[in-house]
Specification:
heterodimer; A: alpha/beta; Quinone Oxidoreductase, Chain A, domain 1; Rossmann fold; 2 domains; seven-stranded mixed beta sheet; 26% helix; B: 328 residues; alpha/beta; six-stranded parallel beta sheet
Chain lengths: 340, 328
């Protein structure tokens, strides 16, 4: 048996291409004392990885040619010489884009054991994982939107935006999504149950948003940055809140390309509150999040939509698709069946 | 107004006019200008670029607020001798309606000129920031830009009274001296000097907890590197002063990394709190714990020259034109 892994072939320039990656067959490492071997089942693909590869994302060193790409996986322990883990344990961990991973249980591996009976395993890298925690933290811990207020979220079909909007809706807000295709908007409205969704690729999307937010925008959960933020700021109510969470519109810019700069005047005029959100701060609140989210999942009020590719060697193409906004919902790669 | 042009204003953009003192009609009153306030927003207001201000044409009186005194009243609420801050424009007499009153003045509160400075809207702006939007904790490091001006100077002094370590940023040694000696800041950084970022870092060994921004994105984008996690920013430049065309603009990335919290401040939101602020500030003023610095010109005809000096950033402290005597 071998371990197939995906390595960096060369640093992407602008939008990543499949040729920036290389699929390599290596040996499965031996398990030493104090270590365990995990087989990866699902690989999570997330926009932040684009910055992580380039060393622009906090906590991630810039990758060199031959380095395994960063990535979180749902995995099962196959063999363990570590006292805290035993064969058959399920977990989420930072295992990279590969089939097998040997861990010593270090903090850097960000291991989180999961209860396979609570929800589908793959949800632990989506609505019940870090993306879901991000959405929940932005809504419950930062914005705390009022009952009846209008909550707008971009990248609404994705696991962060989708969870944020559904949590806001569960709190009694009017939830309005923004997404990049009619199919994504269909998922947002028909599956996630948002009140409305606007396809920002329509020429009149700003007018459509205005029509969908007849009382103005009270909270904007921003996953994309760029000119869209300027447009939505114009529709923000006085004292409106902007959760600064992601900048997906800016991640693909070339290495030396400038970020979009926002005129601060409108933020001042609206007395806006711009609040930076980093999910790492809320890891310790994972249990609190699960207490809120699992009942919502069971009640059918927190749904998720997955865009799956099968086989680790498909990861580069699937990531390119994600970074071009062509995925629908949570992008993940099936590396192996759930049951060995 | 003599002409509209692009770019920095020059003396040729203004002209002096002369006419008889007008008579107030029913419901109007005549005021005499005492201290005229010069502010950066006026440049945008002249062009119609500032909320509530239409573009001016040749022959129009320039926009401006002033400490003024009622000479003759045909309005029931106002009597001769009343002091106020009002939208008089750049002139020695003006006929007004109550809509033009910014604030009534109780001369017992402090020197009359402070009604357009530390005891006026600039002071209230500082109060909105320090008392309401981002109150510092004892021991916080508090940074403020345009530190020699009436907003920045008051912000820093209030933050210091609230227990913060206060570091000003200003352009030039003279302005830094005002921040240090007059206002009593712990440090002041001259951003026009080479190596100012290192100097700032040295002045903020524990990082920046709160930044009150009076100047906009280019400086803010530099300062974010020295922010502590969850640092707060009060965005306070007048909207008209911010221009994405001139500046690079704000990009959210570094603020996300710092979990920064940015809040926009508009002074009008705190007008209801003005009486409370005036009680606090006039006491501090009397006790010598709150200080101000004014940059006076003398006579209405010196107004354009003084305004150009302000536009070049050469004023030190609140720019005021003394137009007429306080009494009489």
């Amino acid at each position: 048996m071998h371990n197939i892994q995906v390595q960096l072939a060369k640093q992407p320039d602008g939008n990543p291409k499949a040729s920036d990656f290389q699929v390599v067959k290596t040996d499965i490492p031996k398990v030493a004392d104090g270590q365990f071997l995990a087989r990866n089942i699902y690989l999570s693909l997330d926009p932040y990885m684009r910055g992580a590869i380039a060393g622009r994302h906090m906590g991630h060193q810039r990758l060199n040619q031959g380095d395994v790409i960063y990535g979180r996986c749902v995995a099962e322990v196959m063999e363990s010489k570590h006292k805290d883990y035993k064969a058959g344990d399920y977990m989420v961990l930072e295992a990279g884009w590969q089939q097998f991973y040997v861990s010593g249980g270090e903090a850097a591996d960000e291991i989180r054991k999961i209860d396979a009976s609570i929800a589908p395993l793959s949800a632990n890298i989506g609505a019940l994982g870090m993306p879901g925690l991000t959405g929940w933290a932005g809504v419950e811990k930062l914005a705390n939107p009022a009952l009846g207020s209008t909550f707008v979220v971009s990248a609404a079909a994705g696991p962060v935006g989708g969870t944020a909007g559904q949590i806001a809706k569960a709190k009694g807000c009017r939830a309005v999504g923004i997404a990049g295709s009619d199919e994504k908007c269909r998922i947002v409205v028909n599956e996630y149950g948002f009140d409305a969704c606007v396809n920002y690729k329509n020429k009149n999307w700003a007018d459509e948003l205005k029509a969908a937010c007849s009382n103005g925008v009270d909270t904007y959960f921003d996953n994309v940055g760029g000119p869209m933020l300027d447009t939505i700021t114009q529709q923000l109510n006085l004292y409106g809140k902007i959760i600064m969470c992601g900048l997906v519109s800016q991640y693909n810019r070339a290495t030396d390309g400038a970020f979009h700069g926002h005129n601060m005047g409108p933020f001042v005029g609206k007395r806006a509150q711009l609040l930076g959100l980093v999910v790492y701060d809320y890891y310790a609140k994972m249990n609190e999040f699960m207490k809120a989210a699992v009942p919502l999942v069971n009640a059918g009020k927190l749904k998720f939509h997955e865009d799956r590719a099968e086989g680790i060697e498909k990861a580069p193409d699937h990531f390119v698709k994600l970074m071009n906004g062509q995925n629908n919902g949570k992008a993940l790669v099936i590396i192996a069946p759930e049951k060995a | 107004m003599r002409r509209q042009r692009d770019g920095l204003p020059d003396a040729g953009d203004f002209q002096m006019g002369d006419g008889p003192v007008p008579e107030p009609g029913d419901g109007e009153f005549l005021v005499r200008t005492i201290y005229l306030s010069l502010d950066p927003y006026i440049r945008k207001a002249i062009r119609g670029d500032h909320p509530g201000h239409a573009v001016l044409s040749a022959g129009d009186v320039i926009y401006g607020r002033a400490v003024a005194r009622v000479v003759k009243s045909r309005h029931a609420d106002l009597k001769q001798g009343d002091y106020m801050v009002a939208e008089t424009g750049w002139q020695s007499y003006a006929v007004l309606t109550p809509k033009k009153i910014v604030q009534r003045i109780d001369p017992a509160m402090g020197p009359l000129s402070t009604a357009i400075g530390v005891l006026g809207m600039p002071g209230l702006t500082a109060w909105g920031s320090v008392a309401h939007l981002a109150p510092p904790k004892v021991g916080d490091t508090y940074v403020v830009s345009a530190a020699a001006g009436p907003v920045g100077g008051t912000v820093g002094q209030l933050a210091k009274i609230a227990g913060a370590r206060v570091v000003g940023i200003a352009g030039g040694k003279e302005k830094c001296d005002v921040a240090l000696r007059t206002y009593g800041f712990d440090a002041c950084i001259d951003y026009k000097k080479d190596g100012w970022e290192q100097a700032l870092q040295l002045a903020c060994p524990n990082g920046i907890d709160i930044y009150h921004d009076n100047v906009g994105a280019p400086l803010l984008m530099k300062l974010v590197a020295y922010f502590n996690l969850y640092a707060k920013v009060v965005m306070c430049g007048r909207p008209g002063d911010y221009h994405s065309g001139e500046f690079g603009g704000l990009s959210p990335g570094p603020f996300i990394g710092k979990r920064a919290q940015l809040r926009g401040l508009v002074v009008y939101d705190y007008e209801k709190d003005l009486p409370r602020y005036l009680r606090v500030a006039s006491t501090l003023l009397r006790e010598g714990r709150l200080r101000f610095k004014e940059d006076h010109a003398d006579g209405i005809e010196d107004t354009p020259g003084h305004f150009l000096k302000l536009m070049r950033g050469e004023n030190v402290g609140k720019a005021i034109v003394a137009v007429g005597p306080e009494k009489g």
